[in-house]
Specification:
Radius of gyration: 20 Å
Oligomer: single chain
Number of helices: 3
Bound molecules: fe (ii) ion
Distance between the termini: 67 Å
Number of domains: 1
Order of helices and strands: EHEHEEEHEEEEE
Number of strands: 10
Structural class: alpha+beta
CATH superfamily: q2cbj1_9rhob like domain
Strand content: 25-35%
CATH topology: Jelly Rolls
CATH class: Mainly Beta
Length: 226
């Protein structure tokens, strides 16, 4: 007698999610025009004292949230933040969802050069539910031309200048013990914007070579309506 075929459900163990979008060249051009200005202005306030980034060759600068060339980006982020909020409650099937609105309350630029890096960190936030993110405005050729293969063996340098998320263990031999590595490396591409929960740890690997790796970072809080 043949064994009865069993129906098997696969129950995934998921923890979180990240939004990715591309803001387009027009937004990036006007942001870069503004960033070129504040980079050249010696009165621009540094944001470095609030950050862990080891940006010694470049700079980390405060961005004005009232700047005309930044407001379109703020609107995009707040709209994505609102979508993230809705998606979260839909995904968790939690019907208690209070009405809240997303607010970008701080933003800064990171101008990195060869050797600069950002160690593993999370972000604080004004509210318990908060998002953080980054947008890429300039990427050196050496990173653009790096292989899409993430393999790090033989000192490949394949993840130089990449953003790395770490949301659990990162065992190299994980698959051999049925453990899925809980990290993800992201190749920075001009115009790409990532939005993630503020508690999610991440880092940026240094790169070697010519050029500026320019990104914008920000925090989004969620305020209750009424
Ligand atoms: Fe960060």
């Amino acid at each position: 007698m043949a064994a009865k075929q069993l129906e098997v459900d696969v129950i995934p163990l998921t923890q979180s999610f990240i939004f990715k979008a591309n803001v387009g060249q027009a937004i990036i051009s006007s942001i870069n025009q503004y960033l070129d200005e504040i980079l050249a202005d010696e009165n621009t306030k540094s944001h470095a004292h609030k950050l862990v980034g080891q940006i010694t060759r470049g700079k980390q600068l405060e961005i004005s949230l009232e700047e005309d060339r930044i407001i379109p980006l703020i609107n995009i982020i707040q709209s994505l933040g609102q979508n993230y909020y809705e998606y979260f409650y839909k995904k968790t099937e939690d019907t208690s969802q209070p009405q809240k609105t997303a607010h970008v309350y701080t933003m800064w630029s990171v101008h990195s050069y060869a050797g600069d890096y950002n160690p593993l960190h999370d972000h604080g936030n004004q509210t318990l539910q908060g998002l953080s993110g980054s947008l890429y405005a300039k990427i050196p050729l050496v990173i653009q031309e790096s292989s899409d293969d993430l393999d790090l063996s033989n000192a490949s340098g394949n993840q130089n200048g990449y953003l790395q998320f770490v949301y659990g263990d990162s065992p190299v031999i994980g698959p051999s013990m049925f453990k899925i590595p809980q990290n993800m490396a992201v190749k920075p591409v001009v115009g790409d914007l990532y939005l993630w929960p503020s508690w999610l740890e991440h880092m940026v690997y240094p790169f070697d070579g010519e050029g500026e790796r320019r990104s914008i970072a920000f925090n989004v809080s969620f305020q209750k309506l009424g």
